[in-house]
Design goal:
Length: 142
């Protein structure tokens, strides 16, 4: 049975807010994972650019004694070369964690706001949350 217009608007705001929070949680998780996994690349490229004479040419002691232009160029190239496999590793970690926590099924359909009878699910019924109907066999992707 359809909800009244005011009730529908209120439920739409609640569901929209919840979906935004789930999106932000996914985004935060992805940001943390990618930052941790790509940290070696970030550090290597940073030191390569910092010590190269054509880019920043820092006056730090390690730039003068250890890194010259050739080694700085090698660091920059190494950083960009190891970035591709680390991106794949980071994405695999995020996808596996999102699948295990069932984060992609936490998005609630807006039909819960339009029609009465839909119900929210509890964590014990299939992960952190589940879609309408509490189907524990529901998968975000196959």
């Amino acid at each position: 049975e359809p909800r009244s217009p005011c009730c529908c608007l209120a439920w739409t705001l609640v569901i929209g807010t919840m979906n935004c929070l789930v999106f932000l949680l996914n985004l935060l998780l992805m940001l943390v994972i990618f930052t941790v996994v790509l940290l070696p690349t970030i550090v290597v490229v940073y030191f390569g650019f910092q010590c190269h004479s054509q880019v920043l040419h820092s006056s730090a002691r390690y730039c003068k004694s250890i890194l010259d232009d050739n080694s700085s160029s090698a660091l920059i190239i190494l950083g960009f070369v190891i970035m591709s496999p680390l991106l794949v590793v980071a994405m695999a970690i995020y996808c596996s964690l999102a699948r295990r926590l069932q984060l992609l099924v936490c998005f609630q359909p807006f039909s819960l706001a339009v029609y009465k009878g839909g119900h929210w699910c509890h964590p014990r019924e299939g992960g952190l949350c589940c879609a309408r109907g509490c189907n524990t066999q529901l998968k975000a992707w196959v």
